[in-house]
Amino acid sequence: MTTYVPPTRNQSPYLPFGDQRNAQFYGKDILSVNQFNRDDLEYIFGVAKEMREMVTRIGTFDLLKGKILANLFYEPSTRTSSSFTSAMERLGGSVIPINEVRYSSVSKGESLPDTVRTLECYADVIVIRHPESGSAALAAKYARKPIINAGDGVGEHPTQALLDLFTIVSELGNVDGLTVTMLGDLKYGRTVHSLARLLSQFIVKINYVSPEILRMPSEIIAELKEKGVSQSEYNTLDAVLPKTDVLYVTRVQKERFENQEEYESVKGAYVITPEVMEQAKDKMIVMHPLPRVGEISMEMDDDPRAAYFRQMEYGLYVRMALLAMVLGKA
Ligand code: ASP
Ligand code: CP
After folding, report:
1. 94 vs 24, 249, 329, CA distance in Å?
2. Buried-exposed string 67-87: b where 16+ CB fall within 10 A, e elsewhere
């Protein structure tokens, strides 16, 4: 009698023997951008490009047929939640949506470890967004199935940073040599924490423009300094906008402030308008993870440099690639 031995998290049952590259991602969690090197990024973006082609040509296909994703969101989301749903469904899989934990047993006091151990009985991969930094890593500690961090408080938002980088590569053709200016709430914005770390693998110059109380955390600046990244901090945009290739605008994260008066004092600090953009290069892009709440005026939307809507679409292809990879089918 032969006993069935299930594949381990690192051994894809679907791949040709010896496909090390792919096996490297199979069964893996995606918790932080620090787990990816440049070769990994090239590979992910290659798969994302194939996904884009497939979606353009045939829309939906059966790569992940029979696979199930659990979308576990303890914080509001439009893009991340729906793009993971769309990614899974375009790959032929299905989704358990827990977008409103209030209506789940979380409201009865169920812990995060128990919640993920429940969901992994029913799903093959769990996408989680949670208000506490380190929560995705905690979930991964208890889960046997891959956990994908969809934002852990002020910590990281790794899949957003991957799609941001894919946007930069797709729109500008390269990353090395670029000047990236991050604007707004650099203290609480998890997207810029992840993106800055990811960019540290390239030869870039990063400008941080923020109100004094919303500066990029010093430990991230120190982490990047260690890697030799050229970084500068400013309170205003004027001096750096003319030299900027990527202007990455962020929302002031109202929900993270303990003192609402403090929020009021910084909320309208920067607004990108066509007038402001007169100082910018012709060949550059304006990005925003969205939602925007006034940081970029709607008059900007027709400017070809406004990449924020295209950025959302790139996210679908990157998330399709990531799902296929962690489920061993890229
Ligand atoms: N949607 C992004 C996030 O969840 C950015 C934002 O909410 O401002 O981090
Ligand atoms: N960019 C982003 O994470 O958007 P949502 O908060 O709508 O998911």
Report:
1. 24, 33, 15
2. bbbbbbbbbebebbbbbbbbb
Q: How far apart are CA 154 and CA 127, in angstroms?
A: 17
For ligand 1, the distance from its centroid to the CA atom of residue 167, given in whole angstroms, is 17
Torsion angle of the four alpha carbons 264, 242, 161, 256, in this order, in degrees rounded to the nearest 10: -10
The pair of structure tokens assigned to 275 is 């007038």
Contact 81 CB / ligand 1 (< 6 Å): no
Is the pLDDT at 243 greater than 90, yes or no? Answer: yes
pLDDT in tens, 172-229: 999 999 999 999 999 999 999 999 999 999 999 999 999 999 999 999 999 999 999 9
Probe residue for ligand 2, chosen from 79, 154, 164 as the CB with the greatest number of ligand atoms within 8 Å: 79
The ligand 2 atom nearest the CA atom of 75 = 6
Sheet with 246-249, edge to edge strand ranges? 230-234, 205-209, 179-183, 246-249, 285-287
Q: How far is it, in rounded angstroms, from Cα 215 to Cα 261?
A: 18
- What are the structure tokens assigned to 121, written together? 């009985």
**What string of DSSP letters covers 217-250?**
PHHHHHHHHHTT-EEEEES-STTTGGG-SEEEE-
51-66 residue pLDDT tens: 999 999 999 999 999 9
Atom of ligand 1 nearest to the CA of 191: 9
What would the pLDDT profile of 255-306 be if each residue is shown by its tens digit?
999 999 999 999 999 999 999 999 999 999 999 999 999 999 999 999 999 9
Determine the pLDDT at residue 57: 97
The C-alpha atoms of residue 211 and residue 265 are separated, in whole angstroms, by 10
Per-residue tokens: 71: 């979308």
Sign of CA dihedral 301, 251, 129, 48: positive
Structural domains of the chain sorted by starting position, each given as residue range(s) with its CATH number in brackets: 20-156+315-326 (3.40.50.1370), 158-313 (3.40.50.1370)
**286 DSSP β-pair partners:** 247, 306
Task: Check pocket membership of 149 for ligand 2, CB cut-off 6 A.
Answer: no
